[in-house]
Design brief:
It is a single chain. The protein is an alpha+beta fold. 26% of the residues lie in helices and 26% in strands. It is built from ten helices and 19 strands. The strands form four sheets. Strands 8-9-10-1-11-19-12 form a seven-stranded mixed sheet. A six-stranded mixed sheet has the order 14-18-13-17-15-16, sandwiched between helices. Strands 4-5-7-6 form a four-stranded antiparallel sheet, with no helix packed on it. β2 and β3 form a beta hairpin. α4 runs antiparallel to α5 and α8 runs antiparallel to α9.
């Protein structure tokens, strides 16, 4: 009997350490998800988009080998790469792909072409097609991993197991989902997960000797001071400029000089330097006071900030007070519906087209209620033009005009925080480049 037990233990040991036996990495994500809205940090492991973003913010083919566009940017034809296959081994056909884009007619002239017909000109369309795609009606992808198992609690996913497509690859990935950060923190402390992606609060690791923190600048988001341009006080452009010039540089963060990322082909460095510019702040405040009554400057400016940005909000209010502007901080969750000034983290598109954020017609998403005929024209033209150099000229003027009018002050691109166990570092470094935006 003892010999049999010994043999079983040896057999298990050989199995557990034989080449190719799956090594697992367990990650934790925060949020509630269903099959139709899985986070891209997971779906990038499973599939690819029709296009992808390069290091300069340009769009190149991913599943697509390339595309053709007509002269007014209302018709796009994407040709697929040759020899594409789904994870079940079936050949990928154009009509396997499913897209949901309002007011766009989608057709499949043959098995290698996807055609998009638009009602209005929209040259940034390829930038909307970077999201990983699945075979219609399934969760089959084209990436290095396949979804092996999904576990749920009622309608929400609690756990997904991913297996590598390549039989020579041994790393299995398990992703667990948590409704909030507190629950995720406890799961990490209990050893339920080895990695937490995208957490805001990292202080819980301070006493954990085996935990490590990796921070990557997230250029898909920007921390911004928004001003209500219809407010009786902040309708004064010079005052908005003064607030922007006096706002502090935030230590250890990647400064945002404009609302477009510095690596973008459309980025223009030829703009005024805001942030911690004391001389310009004082000059702008003097201009503001000369064009308004003294009585109006006796009122407080209320800065509303999310709880995650409370400490940044305190620094801003202190800087404004140092300038001689009365200000108070209010902390609220979510996006404030009515505000004088608001400190928010906004998502920004990979393409420089920011029509939804700043065009005067976009009443739901233009939170500052900003209106400028010049900026409107730049944004309208920028999405009609096809040549990159023509678009760049429009977006350069857009950036200069926007900063001069100062409906907002752009502070920094925030960090994406990854908490992990030190022993998993090599595995994480292998997987993470596949999961994060390019």
């Amino acid at each position: 009997m003892a010999a049999m037990v010994t043999f079983a233990l040896i057999a298990f040991s050989l199995l557990a350490f034989k080449p190719g036996y799956p090594t697992s990495l367990t990650e934790g994500l925060i949020g509630t998800y269903q099959e139709h809205d899985l986070p891209e940090s997971l779906t990038r492991l499973v599939s690819a988009g029709l296009t992808k973003t390069d290091e300069k913010g340009g769009i190149t083919g991913d599943l697509a080998a390339g595309w053709e566009v007509n002269s007014d940017a209302t018709n796009f034809k994407f040709r697929l790469k040759k020899d594409l296959y789904w994870s079940d081994g079936s050949k990928l056909r154009a009509d396997d792909l499913e897209f949901s884009i309002p007011d766009v007619e989608i057709g499949y002239p043959d098995e290698t072409i996807v055609e998009f017909k638009l009602k209005d000109s929209f040259s940034p369309l390829p930038s909307l097609l970077t999201r990983p795609l699945f075979k219609k009606g399934t969760l089959l992808g084209t990436g290095p991993y396949r979804i092996e198992k999904i576990e749920k609690s009622r309608i929400f996913i609690t756990k997904i197991t991913l297996r590598p497509i390549d039989l020579g690859e041994s790393l299995k990935i398990i992703v667990r989902f948590y409704p909030n950060e507190q629950t995720a923190h406890l799961a990490f402390e209990r050893g339920e997960v080895q990695v937490l992606l995208g957490v805001n609060d990292t202080t819980f690791t301070s006493d954990n000797k085996v935990a490590r923190l990796k921070q990557i600048t997230n250029f898909t988001k920007i921390v911004t001071l928004l001003y209500n341009t219809k407010d009786s006080l902040l309708s004064n452009r010079s005052l908005r400029q003064a607030l922007g010039y006096s706002a502090p540089n935030i230590k250890d963060e990647a400064e945002a000089k404009t609302s477009i990322i510095p690596s973008s082909w459309a980025y223009s460095p030829d703009v005024n330097d805001y942030l911690s510019n004391e001389a310009q702040a004082k000059a702008a405040l003097t201009r503001a006071k000369s064009s308004s009554s003294d009585e109006i400057f006796k009122k407080d400016i209320i800065l509303t900030a999310s709880p995650q940005l409370e400490n940044v909000g305190k620094q801003i209010v202190a800087a404004w007070k140092n300038l001689g502007v009365k200000a108070v901080l209010r902390v609220e969750g979510g996006i404030p519906q009515n505000f004088q000034a608001a400190l928010l983290t906004q998502s920004i598109p990979g393409d420089p087209d920011q029509y939804s954020l700043w065009h005067s017609t976009q009443t739901k998403t233009n939170l500052t209620k900003y209106s400028s005929a010049r900026v409107d024209k730049d944004l309208e033209d920028g999405r009609k033009l096809i040549k990159e150099e023509d678009r760049k000229a429009k977006y350069s003027d857009f950036q200069r005009s926007l900063l001069e009018d100062s409906p907002a002050t752009f502070l920094y691109f925030p960090k994406y925080n990854i908490v992990y166990l030190k022993k998993t570092e090599k595995l994480l470094d292998k997987v993470l480049p596949l999961q994060l935006p390019h």
